[in-house]
Amino acid sequence: MKLRLAAIIAVCGITGTAFAHAEVTNEVVKERMELMGTIRANFAVIGGMVQGKVDFDAAKAGEAQAALAAAAAMIPEKFEANETDPESEASPAIWDNWDEFTGFAANLETAALALETDSVDSLKAGFGGIGGACGACHKAYRVD
Q1: CA quadruple 9, 15, 19, 22: dihedral positive or negative?
Q2: pTM value?
Q3: ∠ CA 112-116-117 to the nearest 5 degrees?
Q4: Per-residue pLDDT of the chain (144 residues; tens, 9 = 90+)
Q5: What is the DSSP string of 111-143?
Q6: What's the total number of domains in the chain?
Q7: What is the CATH classification number for the domain harbouring 107?
Q8: Fewest CB within 10 angstroms: 17, 42, 59, 61, which?
Q9: How far apart are CA 43 and CA 68, in angstroms?
Q10: DSSP 24
Q11: Is 134 marked as binding a ligand?
Q12: Which three-class secondary structure state does DSSP give residue 52?
C-alpha cells in the first residue's frame, strides 16, 4: 500500500511539473526547471524512505542518491546563462551573486555524495544535509 501511494504521489508530482513547464517558452529555463524537477523527484524517493512512507530499498535509495548528486553537479552549467521566463522561479540575484549560488550547488552535491544508502538510519543521518542545502539556496534565490 505504501509503495502504491508513493507511486501515485510521484506520478501526480511529475504530471504537475510537466503542466507547469508547459507554460515556459524559454528552452534554457525549461531545462533548468526540469533539472530542479529531477532533484525534487529523487529527494522525494529518499524522503519517502526516511519518513517511513515507503519501504526502504537500498538499490532505489542508491539510484536516487546518484541521480541527485549528478543533477546537483549540473546546476552551475544549467544556470550559467542569465535567461529568464515569466514562469521562472529563479531570482535575478543568482547572477549578481554567482559565487555564492554555485557554492550552494556545491554544498548540495557534497551532501548528496556523502549520503550513505545502506540503511534507513544512514539515510536519516544524511537527509537533513541535503534538505538544508536545498533550503538555503531556495531561501536566497527562489522567487515564489
Answers
A1: positive
A2: 0.84
A3: 105
A4: 444 444 454 545 554 445 456 789 999 999 999 999 999 999 999 999 999 999 999 999 999 999 999 999 999 999 999 999 999 999 999 999 999 999 999 999 999 999 999 999 999 999 999 999 999 999 999 998
A5: HHHH---SSHHHHHHHHHHHHHHHHHHHHHHB-
A6: 1
A7: 1.20.120.10
A8: 59
A9: 7
A10: -
A11: yes
A12: coil
Q: How far is Cα 140 from Cα 13, in angstroms, rounded to an integer?
A: 24
DSSP state of 51: T
137 carries a ligand binding annotation: yes
Annotated binding residue at 12?
Answer: no
The three grid cell numbers given for residue 51, joined into one nine-digit string: 519518513
Domain that holds residue 104: 2-141
Q: What is the largest CA-CA distance in the chain?
A: 47
The single-letter code of the amino acid at 100 is: E
